[in-house]
Amino acid sequence: MFAAMAAPVNNPDHGFCRDCLTFQRSETRRCERCGSPRLARHPELYRLHLAHIDCDAFYAAIEKRDNPALKDRPVIVGGGKRGVVSTACYIARIHGVRSAMPMFKALEACPEAVVIPPDMEKYVRVGREVRALMQALTPLVEPLSIDEAFLDLSGTERLHGMPPAVVLARFALTVEKELGITVSAGLSYCKFLAKVASDFRKPRGLSVIGEAEALGFLAEQPVTLIWGVGKAFAASLERDGIRTVGQLQHMERGDLMRRYGVMGDRLYHLSRGEDDRRVHPDSDAKSVSAETTFDTDISAMAELVPVLRALSEKVSARLKKSGIAGRTVVLKLKTQDFKLRTRNRHLGDPTRLADRIFQTGLDLLRREADGTKYRLLGIGVNDLSDDDKADPPDLVDIQSRKRALAEGAIDTLRGKFGKKAVETGYTFGKGRSTNPPEPIED
Ligand code: TTP
Ligand code: MG
Ligand code: MG
């Protein structure tokens, strides 16, 4: 869908629609295709790759999802022993309710609010579901809390066929559709500003802070914007006459370090939008997977196999990119009536090869191709490790060794000329069939 629009993506004047993901040719205020006013435009929109995603009013959004009667009511999640607000929905926030507020105060501000005691088990479960969808975008996902994470989407454009900004917008739509809650995302060139951006236009926001505007933007902000500057530290800065980030921009590094030690160094760099911290993937990331929900349910092997192949290649590409391998292959199927089937196969050695993932998945799939109609197919690996012991030359099975060598050659060609440079027999022609199942989420 977006791939066809790749060329104009280089033109920063052109944005895209966050609802139908269509590229916009002119500077209209509404989408040329669907009329939505939710257009993303920014001179650096297609160059930035560092994202921060945070769910909107997380606990409250989950409670509203699970009880539609609460949709238009002010909802507060909290109470219990500590008697404070965990979070409030955006309707309750209009009345002044905030996280960490004593419940009696919150109810003074908003007496009509519905108060729900927290169900942590449920929130953890949804948090994991959100994270799994993030990990399908890039292996570089660094969770910060139950409802947020940094994602480094650099180098994923080829994989997704669209730039990171569009991947983010699509992710937001997927979360809404699949999990029934909403997220906001920030896109920038560094962690600091990506996180700042995600908080900008909540809920359902997508905000961009580019390199060119960083200094000017930061200059206007209060010092509390900077990571680690809480109330107490802000007060001591204030005593020194420093209120804005702009003031910090005019101070020397040595001076700041003399006054505030290591924190002075941070103030110096962050005030100038300098932040080279990398995204460190979740050290206990348990799996790498890719999945597709079909437009119409499918039962025929002939149709499922090319999809399985394409998904295996995606999983493999992610493993190779992050230098990891998996020892167990997991096939996931969702039936027409939303029943989930997962099937595992433990391998002798960890693998990162598309062909091994595919062949193993194929074997598992054959047993499930019993005429059942499926709405979703997924493949992945878990038992992750570094790839140094992955795919040892298999002297017994000459065929698999040949395929591994061929895959290495294909990877090299694709690295040079792009993903479409080499099509395998399984995926070749897929795009030309009359009604190909279009992956909506990977
Ligand atoms: P946040 O992401 O800080 O807040 P939020 O998701 O509720 O709202 P926003 O749209 O502004 O992001 O925190 C995530 C969850 O963590 C939140 O839903 C409830 C919990 N939480 C607490 O229990 N106590 C707190 O003081 C805060 C800030 C959050
Ligand atoms: Mg949140
Ligand atoms: Mg959060």
Automatic annotation (TrEMBL):
<comment type="subunit">
    <text>Monomer.</text>
</comment>
<keyword id="KW-0460">Magnesium</keyword>
<dbReference type="GO" id="GO:0042276">
    <property type="term" value="P:error-prone translesion synthesis"/>
</dbReference>
<feature type="binding site">
    <location>
        <position position="147"/>
    </location>
    <ligand>
        <name>Mg(2+)</name>
    </ligand>
</feature>
<keyword id="KW-0808">Transferase</keyword>
<dbReference type="GO" id="GO:0003684">
    <property type="term" value="F:damaged DNA binding"/>
</dbReference>
<dbReference type="InterPro" id="IPR050116">
    <property type="entry name" value="DNA_polymerase-Y"/>
</dbReference>
<keyword id="KW-0227">DNA damage</keyword>
<dbReference type="InterPro" id="IPR043502">
    <property type="entry name" value="DNA/RNA_pol_sf"/>
</dbReference>
<dbReference type="GO" id="GO:0006261">
    <property type="term" value="P:DNA-templated DNA replication"/>
</dbReference>
<dbReference type="InterPro" id="IPR022880">
    <property type="entry name" value="DNApol_IV"/>
</dbReference>
<keyword id="KW-0234">DNA repair</keyword>
<keyword id="KW-0239">DNA-directed DNA polymerase</keyword>
<dbReference type="GO" id="GO:0003887">
    <property type="term" value="F:DNA-directed DNA polymerase activity"/>
</dbReference>
<dbReference type="InterPro" id="IPR036775">
    <property type="entry name" value="DNA_pol_Y-fam_lit_finger_sf"/>
</dbReference>
<feature type="domain" description="UmuC">
    <location>
        <begin position="50"/>
        <end position="230"/>
    </location>
</feature>
<dbReference type="Pfam" id="PF00817">
    <property type="entry name" value="IMS"/>
</dbReference>
<comment type="function">
    <text>Poorly processive, error-prone DNA polymerase involved in untargeted mutagenesis. Copies undamaged DNA at stalled replication forks, which arise in vivo from mismatched or misaligned primer ends. These misaligned primers can be extended by PolIV. Exhibits no 3'-5' exonuclease (proofreading) activity. May be involved in translesional synthesis, in conjunction with the beta clamp from PolIII.</text>
</comment>
<dbReference type="GO" id="GO:0006281">
    <property type="term" value="P:DNA repair"/>
</dbReference>
<dbReference type="GO" id="GO:0009432">
    <property type="term" value="P:SOS response"/>
</dbReference>
<dbReference type="GO" id="GO:0005829">
    <property type="term" value="C:cytosol"/>
</dbReference>
<keyword id="KW-0963">Cytoplasm</keyword>
<keyword id="KW-0515">Mutator protein</keyword>
<keyword id="KW-0479">Metal-binding</keyword>
<protein>
    <recommendedName>
        <fullName>DNA polymerase IV</fullName>
        <ecNumber>2.7.7.7</ecNumber>
    </recommendedName>
</protein>
<dbReference type="InterPro" id="IPR001126">
    <property type="entry name" value="UmuC"/>
</dbReference>
<dbReference type="GO" id="GO:0000287">
    <property type="term" value="F:magnesium ion binding"/>
</dbReference>
<feature type="site" description="Substrate discrimination">
    <location>
        <position position="59"/>
    </location>
</feature>
<dbReference type="Pfam" id="PF11799">
    <property type="entry name" value="IMS_C"/>
</dbReference>
<dbReference type="InterPro" id="IPR043128">
    <property type="entry name" value="Rev_trsase/Diguanyl_cyclase"/>
</dbReference>
<feature type="binding site">
    <location>
        <position position="54"/>
    </location>
    <ligand>
        <name>Mg(2+)</name>
    </ligand>
</feature>
<feature type="active site">
    <location>
        <position position="148"/>
    </location>
</feature>
<comment type="similarity">
    <text>Belongs to the DNA polymerase type-Y family.</text>
</comment>
<keyword id="KW-0548">Nucleotidyltransferase</keyword>
<dbReference type="InterPro" id="IPR017961">
    <property type="entry name" value="DNA_pol_Y-fam_little_finger"/>
</dbReference>
<keyword id="KW-0238">DNA-binding</keyword>
<keyword id="KW-0235">DNA replication</keyword>
